[in-house]
Amino acid sequence: MQTNQKNIILIGFMGVGKTTVGKELARYLGMTFVDLDQAIESEAQQTIVDIFRDEGESGFRLREQKLFLELSEQRGTIISLGGGAFLQEEIQRSSLLTSLVIFLDIDFSIWSERLPLLIKDRPLLQKKSKKEIKELYELRRETYLHAHYTINTERLTPPQTAEKIAKTIQ
Ligand code: S3P
C-alpha cells in the first residue's frame, strides 16, 4: 500500500500514547502530524475539559466529527484521534475507507497503572469506578479492533512503536 498517498490514523484508548507515537511516526516517515484533540482545542480556544463543561459530550462530539472530516481531506497526514472519536460512525467509516487505521493496543492491567495521571484532563474518566472504566475499555476495544492493523505497544517505547508501525504498513 502506498502510505504516501493515504493518511495514517492512530486510534486507541485514552492515554495509550497516540500523540507521542504520532509525532515519532511523522518524523520517521517524513509526514505531517495533527492531533485531533489539540486541533479542537485551538479552534475552540478552550481546553477539552472546558468544552465538555460548557457544551457537554455531545457538543464535543460534534466538533470532533466536523474537524476530523475537514482534516482528513489533507493527504499524507498522520492524525491521532481522541479515544472516543473512532466510535463515531461517520469517523470510523471515513477512516477505514480512505486511510490506514492503526490501533495502539495495551492490556488493561498495564494501562490502569497510568490512570491517576490521566484523570485530570479526561472528563470521561472522572467520577467512574475502576470497574466502570474497565468495562468501557473492553467495550471500546471491540470497535478499535476494526482497524486495519493492531500494534501491541506494551513492551515498546514510542520510537520503537513508530518503527514497528512503519515496518508493518510497508
Ligand atoms: C476521549 C478521549 C480524549 C478526548 C476526550 C474524550 C474519549 O482523548 O478526546 O477527553 O472519549 O475517549 P485521548 O484519547 O487523547 O485521551
From TrEMBL:
Binding-site positions, ATP: 15-20, 122
Pfam families: SKI
EC primary class: transferase
Coiled-coil segments: none
Catalytic activity: shikimate + ATP = 3-phosphoshikimate + ADP + H(+)
UniProt cofactor note: Binds 1 Mg(2+) ion per subunit.
Protein name: Shikimate kinase
Organism: Alkalicoccobacillus plakortidis
Upper lineage: Bacteria, Bacillati, Bacillota, Bacilli, Bacillales
